[in-house]
Design a protein that fits this description.
With 282 residues, the protein is of the alpha/beta class. It folds into 3 domains: 116 residues, Periplasmic binding protein-like II (D-Maltodextrin-Binding Protein, domain 2), CATH 3.40.190.10; 87 residues, Periplasmic binding protein-like II (D-Maltodextrin-Binding Protein, domain 2, 3-Layer(aba) Sandwich), CATH 3.40.190.10; 67 residues, 2-Layer Sandwich (Alpha-Beta Plaits). It is 27% helix and 33% strand. A 6-stranded mixed β-sheet has the order 2-3-1-4-11-5, sandwiched between helices. It has a 5-stranded mixed β-sheet with strand order 8-7-9-6-10, covered by helices on one side. It catalyses: 1-(5-phospho-beta-D-ribosyl)-ATP + diphosphate = 5-phospho-alpha-D-ribose 1-diphosphate + ATP.
Length: 282
Amino acid sequence: MLRVAVPNKGSLSESATEILIEAGYKQRRTTKDLTLTDVANEVEFYYLRPRDIAVYVGEGTLDVGISGRDLVLDSHADADEIMPLGFGSSTFRFAGPPGAATSVKDLAGKRIATSYAGVLSDHLAEYGVDAAVVRLDGAVESAVQLGVADVIADVVETGTTLRQAGLEVFGDPILKSEGVLIKRHGVDNPPAGLQQLVRRLEGVLIARNYVMMDYDIPAEQIDAATAVAAGLESPTVSPLHRAGWVAVRVMVQRAEAQRIMDQLWEVGARAILTTDIHACRI
């Protein structure tokens, strides 16, 4: 069976469980369960701390896993990213008191507090900056006020917590992270079931990002409508009982759906409908 590591808690856990269910896999009913066997799909799921997943996969104990890109890189585990999963987005950045620094080059000789010592050390080495890395498990934004560090490197979402601590971000982002599917580095023969898992997850991601759009339009306007929404391959066009009219079905990006509906209306489309796609294969 394919052995898959899944985050056991936090936002990554909820999103990972949701996408696996949408992909047709069984998932645990209670957080007390540490493992689950999906006999029908020949997969064993192991629920682990998100920070440990890359280690288990990198050692070959488990075949693949879902974790955050930041956690994978921070672990220095022997694991490779297979695909991004579109959830758990975050940005890892420097922050400090106003005027403390403007770029990574200004951090030479300074103390930098972080919960991601591996990611930070790699980033400093990339720029040839010699600085002291102070590893903390949490509440990194308090490190400057408490005199433990001169600046910090941490995950930044809205920046509200940083401002409350009297800090501001500076420089370019260190890393942009999200949930990812990973496998052990250097595995030439993928384990059975991996390609099926990847195809299913890709299908879910496409379904989340697209909608199916149907509309009626005069046949002479079909070229103008196709220019607005060409579809992945080409639209499905069917004749209507009303002479000179056709029905069109096409996949469009969810984020563009309203704009496309406006443009289709302008070229003569009517009865324009959108419906969700729950799963697909492209």
